[in-house]
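In this supplementary section we document a worked example of the pipeline. Step one takes a protein sequence of length 49 as its only input; no multiple sequence alignment statistics are reported here. Step two produces a three-dimensional model, which step three serialises into structure tokens for compact storage. The input and output of this example are shown verbatim.
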Amino acid sequence: MKTRLFGKKEEALILTLISVVQTLLLSSLRKAQGSVEEDGVHILTTMIF
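The serialised model returned by step three reads:
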């Protein structure tokens, strides 16, 4: 019997998606820190809501 919710392929896909999202968030945070403070606040509020 299978107790796993996802197969190996699905797990790999989900992990890849998570890492891509983390990379995008990190890069957007770095850009926010490098740019004007207002832009950083705008990006942060966009991420929260």
